[in-house]
UniProtKB/TrEMBL annotation:
Record GO terms (molecular function): ATP binding; tetrahydrofolylpolyglutamate synthase activity; UDP-N-acetylmuramoylalanine-D-glutamate ligase activity
Record-linked InterPro entries: Folylpolyglutamate_synth_CS, Mur-like_cat_sf, Mur_ligase_C, Mur_ligase_C_dom_sf, Mur_ligase_cen, MurD
Organism: Roseivirga misakiensis
Biological or metabolic pathway of the protein: Cell wall biogenesis; peptidoglycan biosynthesis
Keywords associated with the record: ATP-binding, Cell cycle, Cell division, Cell shape, Cell wall biogenesis/degradation, Cytoplasm, Ligase, Nucleotide-binding, Peptidoglycan synthesis
Keyword Transcription regulation listed: no
One GO term (biological process): regulation of cell shape
Name of the featured protein: UDP-N-acetylmuramoylalanine--D-glutamate ligase
Length: 445
């Protein structure tokens, strides 16, 4: 009898899972509530995989032996509720792909810094000669790569949504960077549920293998002992007196305790800002635990180039730097971005608010921001939060107008920073689309 596999959501992860499922002998059906991109449709047709769009055929889907759900689909979706009520097994694409690879896995999660740390870890391993892939919440889907590649290692960026539907994946190294309020609309506005979702990463680590985490984070500390029971813990800290763990002192990073102590000058790390010191600590620990030597680690830290849309210098015009930080979709990311600059800032922010409490950044905004340009369909909350704190506050739903205003306001030595604190879906397809359109408009100034 055929094993019936349904894929909910036909994005990169869904189509990758469909192709892998077909190759593994499943009877595959793909269902998307929205419109499927034409290139994905063509891939499914070429593989002989049946699909539907603009809705779900519930009766057919309920007959599935296994369902792989896109991380973007919430548990409140009617089709997901119907599947759960019927007892159908729902897993992530990460969980599904993990069943068909013998590669060693490094999993990285956290509210902020996941992409940078994942890419940096991958960069260090690849530079050290490892046969390594990178997947998860970045790049090509894990399932697609398991189907088409033959890597010995994978570095996986794992969102809380992916972790929620992952149960039996086996990680050699699990990394937890930080936990701050985000995506609370998906967790019944209960921060404890979101914390529990992030901590799940350590339940996926092999017994006796490695847990890397930021010791300074109080939200991690609350449950870390039980979450890492049976694991080899490797905490890191920004404290200069944490002599027994990876820490920073006298502007140098110390990776301890390993068989040797590694001291890396902070100035040698290619990515700037204190938050990136944390990312370098986490990535360095993961790489060392994977067997990378001191020389390759230091080389990787020096030569790494960060991802697009993360504090990306787009252009310097009339002595004003224009920075694309479109991936900053929460307040913690924005705080890191504002902290990275010592110049007066013209801040462009806005989009779909995710329950932000803007009082958390009032102090740093008051100190550093000379003007706020709100970019979104509904800017009421941003305007009311900062109109008595920032000298100049403007509001628009037009990106070109926002950038022209920024150019008029900014003086030589200032920084124009797109760091939205919100999701992008009111005006753009996603944060990449927002960042790319910002860059295009700035380059046309």
């Amino acid at each position: 009898m055929n094993r019936i596999l349904t894929i909910l959501g036909a994005g990169e992860s869904g189509v990758g899972a469909a192709l892998l499922g077909k190759a593994q002998g499943y009877d595959v059906f793909v269902s998307d509530f929205g419109i499927i991109a034409e290139d994905f449709k063509n891939e499914l047709r070429s593989a002989g995989i049946e699909f539907e769009e603009n809705g779900h055929s519930e009766a057919r889907i309920l007959k599935s032996n296994l369902v792989v759900k896109s991380p973007g689909i919430p548990d409140t979706a009617p089709i997901v509720q119907a599947l759960r009520n019927s007892g159908n097994l729902i897993i992530s694409e990460i969980e599904f792909a993990g069943k068909f690879t013998k590669a060693k896995l490094i999993g990285i999660t956290g509210t902020n810094g996941k992409t940078t740390t994942t890419m940096l870890t991958y960069h260090i391993l690849k530079g050290a000669g490892y046969n390594v892939g990178m997947a998860g919440n970045v790049g090509k889907s894990f399932a697609r790569q398991v189907l088409t590649e033959n890597y010995d290692w994978y570095v996986l960026e794992l969102s809380s949504f992916q972790l929620d539907d992952t149960y039996e994946l086996k990680l050699e190294i699990g990394v937890l960077l930080n936990i701050t309020p985000d995506h609370l609309d998906r967790y019944d506005y209960d921060f404890k549920k979101y914390i529990a979702s992030k901590m799940r990463i350590f339940h996926l680590v092999h017994l006796g293998c490695h847990a890397v985490y930021w010791q300074d984070d109080a939200h991690i500390g609350e449950g870390i002992a039980s979450a890492t029971s049976g694991l080899n813990v490797r905490p890191f800290s920004l404290s200069g007196d944490a002599a027994e763990i990876t820490h920073i002192q006298f502007d140098r990073l110390f990776y301890v305790p390993f068989d040797f102590e590694i001291s890396a000058p902070r100035a040698d790390i290619s990515i700037k800002g204190l938050h990136n010191v944390q990312n370098a600590m986490a990535a360095g620990n993961a790489a060392l635990l994977a067997g990378v030597n001191k020389e390759d680690l230091l080389k990787g830290l020096k030569t790494f180039k960060n991802a697009e849309h993360r504090l990306e210098l787009v252009k310097r015009l009339e002595e004003v730097d224009y920075i694309n930080d479109s991936k900053a979709t929460n307040l913690d990311s924005v705080k890191y971005a504002l902290d990275a600059f010592d110049t007066p800032i013209v801040w462009i922010a806005g989009g779909i608010d995710k329950g932000n409490n803007y009082s958390l950044v009032e102090a740093i905004v008051s100190e550093k921001v000379k003007a706020l340009i709100c970019l979104g369909k509904d800017n009421t909350k941003l305007v009311t939060s900062f109109e008595n704190i920032v000298p100049t506050v403007k509001s628009t739903d037009d990106l070109i107008k926002a950038i022209r205003w920024a150019k008029e306001i900014a003086k030589p030595g200032d920084t124009v920073l797109l760091s939205p604190a919100c999701s992008s879906f009111d005006l753009f397809d996603n944060y990449e689309d927002r960042g790319n359109k910002f860059k295009e408009a700035v380059l046309n100034l």
